[in-house]
Design brief:
Elements: H1 2-12, H2 33-71, H3 74-105, H4 112-118, H5 133-146, H6 180-193
Helix pairs in contact: 1-2, 3-4, 3-5
Length: 195
Protein backbone atom coordinates (compact mmCIF):
# COMPACT_ATOMS: atom_id res chain seq x y z
CA UNK A 1 0.00 0.00 0.00
CA UNK A 2 2.92 2.46 0.19
CA UNK A 3 2.69 2.73 -3.58
CA UNK A 4 -0.85 4.06 -3.26
CA UNK A 5 0.40 6.83 -1.00
CA UNK A 6 3.12 7.73 -3.49
CA UNK A 7 0.59 7.88 -6.30
CA UNK A 8 -1.73 10.07 -4.29
CA UNK A 9 1.14 12.32 -3.24
CA UNK A 10 2.41 12.67 -6.78
CA UNK A 11 -1.06 13.67 -7.92
CA UNK A 12 -1.40 16.28 -5.19
CA UNK A 13 1.99 17.92 -5.79
CA UNK A 14 1.58 21.49 -6.92
CA UNK A 15 2.58 22.11 -10.46
CA UNK A 16 4.68 25.00 -11.59
CA UNK A 17 2.55 27.99 -12.42
CA UNK A 18 2.27 28.56 -16.11
CA UNK A 19 2.92 32.01 -17.41
CA UNK A 20 -0.14 33.50 -18.97
CA UNK A 21 0.10 34.59 -22.60
CA UNK A 22 0.11 38.27 -23.25
CA UNK A 23 -3.14 40.09 -23.40
CA UNK A 24 -3.27 40.25 -27.18
CA UNK A 25 -2.80 36.41 -27.43
CA UNK A 26 -0.28 36.59 -30.27
CA UNK A 27 2.70 35.09 -28.41
CA UNK A 28 2.80 31.58 -26.96
CA UNK A 29 4.85 30.33 -24.06
CA UNK A 30 8.27 29.06 -25.21
CA UNK A 31 8.86 25.31 -25.05
CA UNK A 32 10.72 24.27 -21.92
CA UNK A 33 12.36 20.90 -22.57
CA UNK A 34 13.34 20.22 -18.95
CA UNK A 35 9.83 20.86 -17.70
CA UNK A 36 8.32 18.68 -20.46
CA UNK A 37 10.74 15.83 -19.63
CA UNK A 38 9.92 16.13 -15.93
CA UNK A 39 6.18 16.01 -16.67
CA UNK A 40 6.70 13.00 -18.93
CA UNK A 41 8.73 11.17 -16.26
CA UNK A 42 6.01 11.92 -13.72
CA UNK A 43 3.24 10.57 -16.01
CA UNK A 44 5.30 7.46 -16.84
CA UNK A 45 5.88 6.85 -13.14
CA UNK A 46 2.16 7.18 -12.40
CA UNK A 47 1.29 4.83 -15.26
CA UNK A 48 3.81 2.26 -14.01
CA UNK A 49 2.36 2.42 -10.50
CA UNK A 50 -1.16 1.93 -11.89
CA UNK A 51 -0.03 -1.09 -13.94
CA UNK A 52 1.51 -2.62 -10.81
CA UNK A 53 -1.70 -2.06 -8.86
CA UNK A 54 -3.73 -3.59 -11.68
CA UNK A 55 -1.55 -6.72 -11.68
CA UNK A 56 -2.02 -7.00 -7.92
CA UNK A 57 -5.79 -6.59 -8.14
CA UNK A 58 -6.48 -8.98 -11.08
CA UNK A 59 -6.16 -12.16 -8.97
CA UNK A 60 -8.41 -10.61 -6.34
CA UNK A 61 -11.04 -9.85 -8.99
CA UNK A 62 -10.92 -13.46 -10.20
CA UNK A 63 -11.34 -14.72 -6.64
CA UNK A 64 -14.26 -12.36 -6.10
CA UNK A 65 -15.93 -13.68 -9.27
CA UNK A 66 -15.38 -17.28 -8.12
CA UNK A 67 -16.88 -16.47 -4.73
CA UNK A 68 -19.86 -14.79 -6.36
CA UNK A 69 -20.43 -17.83 -8.56
CA UNK A 70 -20.12 -20.14 -5.57
CA UNK A 71 -22.70 -18.12 -3.65
CA UNK A 72 -25.27 -18.27 -6.45
CA UNK A 73 -28.24 -20.33 -5.58
CA UNK A 74 -28.95 -23.59 -7.32
CA UNK A 75 -31.88 -21.95 -9.11
CA UNK A 76 -29.64 -19.24 -10.59
CA UNK A 77 -27.15 -21.83 -11.86
CA UNK A 78 -29.96 -23.85 -13.40
CA UNK A 79 -31.39 -20.71 -14.98
CA UNK A 80 -28.00 -19.95 -16.56
CA UNK A 81 -27.73 -23.50 -17.86
CA UNK A 82 -31.27 -23.35 -19.25
CA UNK A 83 -30.55 -20.10 -21.05
CA UNK A 84 -27.42 -21.57 -22.63
CA UNK A 85 -29.33 -24.70 -23.67
CA UNK A 86 -32.10 -22.60 -25.24
CA UNK A 87 -29.55 -20.62 -27.23
CA UNK A 88 -28.00 -23.86 -28.53
CA UNK A 89 -31.44 -25.20 -29.44
CA UNK A 90 -32.35 -21.98 -31.28
CA UNK A 91 -29.12 -22.21 -33.29
CA UNK A 92 -29.88 -25.82 -34.19
CA UNK A 93 -33.43 -24.95 -35.30
CA UNK A 94 -32.15 -22.05 -37.43
CA UNK A 95 -29.60 -24.37 -39.05
CA UNK A 96 -32.28 -27.00 -39.71
CA UNK A 97 -34.63 -24.46 -41.30
CA UNK A 98 -31.81 -23.06 -43.43
CA UNK A 99 -30.96 -26.56 -44.63
CA UNK A 100 -34.60 -27.28 -45.44
CA UNK A 101 -34.98 -24.02 -47.37
CA UNK A 102 -31.77 -24.68 -49.28
CA UNK A 103 -32.86 -28.23 -50.12
CA UNK A 104 -36.27 -27.08 -51.40
CA UNK A 105 -34.73 -24.17 -53.32
CA UNK A 106 -32.13 -26.36 -55.05
CA UNK A 107 -34.71 -27.52 -57.59
CA UNK A 108 -35.76 -24.06 -58.83
CA UNK A 109 -32.96 -21.66 -57.89
CA UNK A 110 -29.60 -21.30 -59.62
CA UNK A 111 -28.03 -20.58 -56.22
CA UNK A 112 -30.16 -21.90 -53.31
CA UNK A 113 -28.20 -19.80 -50.81
CA UNK A 114 -29.85 -16.71 -52.31
CA UNK A 115 -33.18 -17.99 -51.04
CA UNK A 116 -31.76 -18.77 -47.59
CA UNK A 117 -30.36 -15.26 -47.26
CA UNK A 118 -33.49 -13.45 -48.38
CA UNK A 119 -36.17 -15.29 -46.37
CA UNK A 120 -37.04 -14.87 -42.69
CA UNK A 121 -36.23 -18.38 -41.47
CA UNK A 122 -37.89 -17.94 -38.08
CA UNK A 123 -41.28 -17.55 -39.76
CA UNK A 124 -41.23 -21.20 -40.89
CA UNK A 125 -40.96 -22.73 -37.40
CA UNK A 126 -44.04 -23.29 -35.27
CA UNK A 127 -44.08 -22.81 -31.51
CA UNK A 128 -43.51 -26.52 -30.97
CA UNK A 129 -40.44 -26.51 -33.27
CA UNK A 130 -41.97 -28.11 -36.38
CA UNK A 131 -40.78 -26.77 -39.75
CA UNK A 132 -43.62 -25.81 -42.11
CA UNK A 133 -42.45 -27.01 -45.55
CA UNK A 134 -45.64 -25.85 -47.30
CA UNK A 135 -45.00 -22.30 -46.13
CA UNK A 136 -41.38 -22.57 -47.35
CA UNK A 137 -42.53 -23.73 -50.79
CA UNK A 138 -45.03 -20.85 -51.02
CA UNK A 139 -42.37 -18.33 -49.96
CA UNK A 140 -39.90 -19.73 -52.50
CA UNK A 141 -42.49 -19.47 -55.29
CA UNK A 142 -43.22 -15.88 -54.29
CA UNK A 143 -39.51 -15.11 -54.20
CA UNK A 144 -39.05 -16.47 -57.72
CA UNK A 145 -41.91 -14.24 -58.92
CA UNK A 146 -40.19 -11.21 -57.40
CA UNK A 147 -36.69 -12.20 -58.54
CA UNK A 148 -36.98 -14.29 -61.70
CA UNK A 149 -33.28 -13.84 -62.48
CA UNK A 150 -32.51 -16.16 -59.53
CA UNK A 151 -34.26 -19.07 -61.28
CA UNK A 152 -32.31 -22.06 -62.54
CA UNK A 153 -31.98 -21.95 -66.33
CA UNK A 154 -34.13 -24.49 -68.23
CA UNK A 155 -32.20 -27.60 -69.19
CA UNK A 156 -34.50 -28.46 -72.14
CA UNK A 157 -34.49 -24.98 -73.67
CA UNK A 158 -32.41 -23.83 -76.62
CA UNK A 159 -28.70 -24.16 -76.09
CA UNK A 160 -26.23 -21.46 -76.83
CA UNK A 161 -23.95 -22.27 -79.73
CA UNK A 162 -20.36 -23.14 -78.94
CA UNK A 163 -17.93 -20.48 -80.15
CA UNK A 164 -15.90 -21.21 -83.29
CA UNK A 165 -12.35 -20.06 -82.58
CA UNK A 166 -11.37 -20.06 -86.23
CA UNK A 167 -14.16 -17.69 -87.10
CA UNK A 168 -12.88 -14.27 -88.04
CA UNK A 169 -9.21 -15.22 -88.11
CA UNK A 170 -8.85 -13.91 -91.65
CA UNK A 171 -11.15 -12.00 -93.95
CA UNK A 172 -10.59 -14.09 -97.09
CA UNK A 173 -11.15 -17.50 -95.57
CA UNK A 174 -7.46 -18.43 -95.51
CA UNK A 175 -6.87 -19.94 -92.15
CA UNK A 176 -3.38 -20.22 -90.88
CA UNK A 177 -2.39 -23.60 -89.51
CA UNK A 178 -1.60 -23.77 -85.86
CA UNK A 179 1.46 -26.00 -86.34
CA UNK A 180 4.64 -23.85 -86.45
CA UNK A 181 6.29 -26.25 -88.93
CA UNK A 182 3.40 -25.80 -91.35
CA UNK A 183 3.55 -22.03 -90.95
CA UNK A 184 7.27 -22.04 -91.70
CA UNK A 185 6.79 -24.34 -94.69
CA UNK A 186 4.11 -22.01 -96.06
CA UNK A 187 6.38 -19.00 -95.69
CA UNK A 188 9.23 -20.80 -97.42
CA UNK A 189 6.96 -21.86 -100.29
CA UNK A 190 5.81 -18.27 -100.82
CA UNK A 191 9.39 -17.03 -100.72
CA UNK A 192 10.51 -19.60 -103.32
CA UNK A 193 7.58 -18.73 -105.65
CA UNK A 194 8.55 -15.09 -105.57
CA UNK A 195 12.04 -15.75 -107.00
Amino acid sequence: MPENEETEQSVEEPQEPETAPEADGTEEEPFDRKRAEAALRKKNSEAENLRKRLKELEPLARKAKELEDAQKSEAERLTDQLTAAQERADKAVRAAVASKVEALAARDFADPEDAVGSLDLAAFVSDDGVIDTDAIRAALADLLKRKPHWARPDEGGPRRPAPDRTQGSSGNGNRSPSDPAQVFAGLMAQALKGR
